[in-house]
């Protein structure tokens, strides 16, 4: 009888342990942190300006609230590679508060999409960056991370999911085609993602980003230097060599910093496109 009771207890314990293991979700606690922080931000948004103090400024006796407003909408999409070895590793990184990095979306190699942050909230993905006159990219963009260590091709299932996601984002937020760019474009000194094997031409064919006509021979206006041409496209030219490398990585799938006549033609077409839009 004692043996039977012990055996029964062991079986029950095994079953319960298996059920707990099967139902275990490693991000339950970090999801709670998300919801708590989200509630704090909602509280700030709901705060009515009439109770806010304005020190040393003449404040009206009665508050008048405008009737015309909505949420800020993203106007850029910044594409990254994770530079890590798995989707799980990236999810872990983005759920550790000490890392101070995040993205709105993470797309795994098999095409699975993790929507980690509400599109209207500000992710910490761009860092110190600049595109044209925009020096606060995080406040105006959606960050998308692709599971890729930085040296390998991008999986077809992953790109298929990316194109579906970009279509949704473009339609929802009316994001201009020119504003689908890479992390390496906005931070050429620090970053090189997505890597040189990323299929920018396929994105451009679908309306996400701009491209050029390879057989068109166009010339830069007389007197227009390469650095100035790059800045007209949008690149930060504080480090000219880094800007050239970023341009060639994106538009030429090239890792050299030498500018030839074909590169000049591409720059001329990109500038013309920018001026038209």
The main sheet orders its strands as 3-2-4-1-5
CATH architecture of the largest domain: 3-Layer(aba) Sandwich
Name the overall outline.
globular
Can you tell me the CATH class of the largest domain?
A: Alpha Beta
Describe, in plain words, how this protein is organized in 3D.
α7 (226-233) runs parallel beside α9. This protein has a five-stranded mixed beta sheet, with helices on both faces. It contains nine helices and five strands. With 277 residues, it is an alpha/beta fold. It folds into two domains: 29-39 and 67-197, 3-Layer(aba) Sandwich (Lysozyme-like); 212-277, no CATH class. 41% of the residues lie in helices and 8% in strands.
Chain-wise SSE layout:
Layout: H1 2-23, H2 28-46, E1 76-81, H3 87-94, E2 105-107, E3 113-115, E4 141-146, H4 156-173, E5 180-182, H5 183-186, H6 200-205, H7 226-233, H8 240-251, H9 261-276
Parallel strand pairs: 1-4, 1-5, 2-4
Antiparallel strand pairs: 2-3
Helix pairs in contact: 7-9
Summed up:
With 277 residues, the chain is an alpha/beta fold. The protein has helices at 2-23, 28-46, 87-94, 156-173, 183-186, 200-205, 226-233, 240-251, 261-276; strands spanning 76-81, 105-107, 113-115, 141-146, 180-182.
Features:
single chain; 277 residues; alpha/beta; Lysozyme-like; 2 domains; five-stranded mixed β-sheet; 9 helices; globular
